[in-house]
Amino acid sequence: MAETILSEEILKEVETLRNAEIVVGVPSYNNAGTLRHVIQAIEVGLLKYFPQSKAVIVNSDGGSTDGSQQVVRQVRTEDSHLLIFSHPLHPVHRLVAPYHGVPGKGSAFRAIFQIAELLEARACAVVDADLRSITPEWIELLLRPLLHAGYDYVAPYYLRHKYDGTITNSIVYPLTRALYGQRVRQPIGGDFGFSGRLASHYLSHDVWGTDVARYGIDIWMTTTAICGGFRVCQSFLGAKIHDAKDPGSDLSAMLTQVVGSVFRLMETHAAVWMPVRGSQDVPVFGFRFDVGLEPIRVNLERMIQHFHRGLADLGEIWDVVLQPKTARELRNLVRLRTADFHLPDELWVKTIYDFAVAFHKRQIHPDHLLRSLTPIYMGRVASFVAETQESLAGEVEQKIEDLCLLYEQCKPYLVEQWRGSPAVQEAKTGVPVHSPSPSHA
Fold this sequence. Notes:
Blueprint: H1 8-17, E1 22-28, H2 32-49, E2 55-61, H3 68-74, E3 93-96, H4 105-118, E4 123-126, H5 136-148, E5 153-159, H6 166-180, E6 182-183, E7 192-195, H7 196-203, H8 217-227, E8 232-239, H9 252-268, H10 270-273, E9 280-281, E10 284-285, H11 300-321, H12 324-332, H13 345-361, H14 366-371, H15 374-388, H16 393-409, H17 411-419, H18 422-429
Parallel strand pairs: 1-2, 1-4, 2-3, 5-8, 6-9, 8-10
Antiparallel strand pairs: 4-7, 5-7
Helix pairs in contact: 2-3, 2-5, 4-7, 6-9, 6-16, 11-12, 11-15, 13-17
C-alpha cells in the first residue's frame, strides 16, 4: 500500500485483527448527537444479517471536539428484544481512526479504504454519521449484492421530498446519466457499498491532495466505478431523513463544490463519455415502499429575485460563458412576472452544457464561473417549484425523467462544443473527431 494516513496505533490494531470479511465505515466530524443511533443500527445489521462474517466498524473521525469518538467507543447495542436466529460466530469490532492529511470527507473515506485493504475485506460500506433514518436493513441492502450477487458498487436509492435534492435532480443525476449512460438515481447519496477490489482501485488514484479529498468524494466514487468497468447496482433504502434545507436558501457553496467536481471528472473521463449515447437501467435491490417525508418550505419569490440580481450583476460573465442564443433567452426571462416565471427545460440543459464547456476551456477562472451559475440554478428551481406545487411524487419523478431524456438528446450539442480544435481534442482524449451520432435515448 502507498502512503498511509493512519496512525501507528491504528495500524497496530488492524494488524491485531489480521483480516475481516466486512468493513463498514462512518466518517464523522462533531456528530455526537446522531452517532449512537448510527453505530447501533450498523452493529445490529451485521449481527442479524451476516452472523457468520467477521466484521469491523471503522469510525474515521476528522478531529471532533464534541465527544464523537467517545460515543463510538462507549455505545452499547441493546439487542435483547431482537429476533436474531443465527448465533454470531464473531463479535463486531470497532475502530476509531482519526485520519491525517487534507481535511474533508474524502480523506475520511481514504482512511476507510486503507483499513479495508489491509484487512483484505470482501465487502465494504460507508454511511453518513448524521443519519436519523438508518435501520439495520440498510446494512444488508448495501452489503448483500457485493457478497452474493457479484456487484462491486451499490449506490443508494432513496425516496425524497420533491424539493429535497434539487442539485441532484436538476444537474448531477441527469448529467451523469447522459454522460456515462448509467441510470444511478442518487450518484451523490452519501451511503454506498463497494467491494474490496474497488476500494483498492480507489486507492490507486492520486487524487487525495485535490478537492476530492475535501468534498468531491461521493460523485468521484460513483463516476470512477462506472468508468472503471465495475458492476454497479442500487439498493432501495426508503427515506433518507437529514437536515433538509429550503432550496431557495444559500446553497452556492455546495453547488460550486458538487458541480465543479462533476466538471473536473468530465475532463478526466472525456474518452469514456464522448461516444456514449442514451442510457440504461441499473438494477435496484430491495422492496420498494412508500414512506412519509418531512415537508420542505420553499421561498419562491426569493429565488426569482436572486435570478434577477444575477442577471444585473453577472450578465457580462454569462455573455462570455453562454452561446448567444442561450444568453438571449435567459435575458428575456427578466420580463416575466413572478406568477409567470418559467425557465424551459431545454434552455436549462444547454446552459449546463455551456458552463461545462466554458469550465473545460478555462474561459473564466473556475471559481468565478461556478459561482455565476448559482442565480441561474435558483431560477431553474423556482420554475420547477412553480410547475409542480400541485403535483404528486410520481408526477414529479416523471418530470425529472423527461429532463434526463432531454440531457441525453442534447448531448451532441455538448460534444460538438467540447471538441473544439480536432487536433487538440484528439491529443487530449484519444477520441477521433467525427460528426456526433444521433441520440437514441
